[in-house]
Amino acid sequence: VQLVESGGGLVQTGGSLRLSCVASGFKFDDWAIGWFRQAPGKEREGVGCIDSVSHDGTTHYTESVKGRFTISSDNSKNTVYLNMNSLKPEDTARYFCAAEQKWCSGRESMFKFWGKGTQVTVSS
């Protein structure tokens, strides 16, 4: 089982990035994929999540990113994307994707598989 994130980098305030999470080793259609982030000295927080294909692929977002971040999925590629627009310095963090069975429970402990993350840095 593997989750691999990519697409991070350095961007200016107001810029955009698209992160990718490629999943392998499990039946993608039955798993929800969540995005999390962790800034230095802070606890990891959930950014958003997409329910599994078999549960309609509904997306969920934390309040601070609503209207700026969008999660989408390309099931043919076992890939979930985090599209980030209007980036702010406070979005600077390491971003992780993780897999949870069926739907997004809102509980980090329910995510079974985790990627190693990709760094996003937003300069002011």
Structural overview:
It is built from no helices and 11 strands. The protein is an all-beta fold and 124 residues long. A hairpin with an 8-residue loop joins strand 5 and strand 6 (59-61). The chain is globular. The termini are far apart. The model has no long low-confidence stretch (mean pLDDT 96).
Q: What labels describe this entry?
A:
mainly beta, 124 residues, 0% helix, globular
Question: Could you give the topology of this structure?
Answer:
Blueprint lengths: L1 E5 L2 E4 L4 E8 L6 E8 L6 E6 L8 E3 L7 E6 L4 E6 L8 E9 L11 E2 L3 E6 L1
Parallel strand pairs: 2-11
Antiparallel strand pairs: 1-3, 3-8, 4-5, 4-9, 5-6, 7-8, 9-10, 9-11
Structural class given helices, strands, pairing? mainly beta
Oligomer: single chain
| Helix amount | under 10%
Number of strand segments? 11
Distance between the termini: 37 Å
What is the overall shape? globular
Largest sheet: 7 strands, mixed
**Helix-strand topology string:** EEEEEEEEEEE
Please state roughly what percent of the residues sit in beta strands, choosing from under 5%, 5-15%, 15-25%, 25-35%, 35-45% or over 45%.
Answer: over 45%
* Average residue-wise pLDDT: 96
SS element count, helices:
0
Query: Roughly how many Å is the radius of gyration?
Result: 13 Å
List segments where confidence is low: pLDDT < 50 over at least 5 consecutive residues.
none
Quick overview:
The protein has 124 residues and is an all-beta fold.
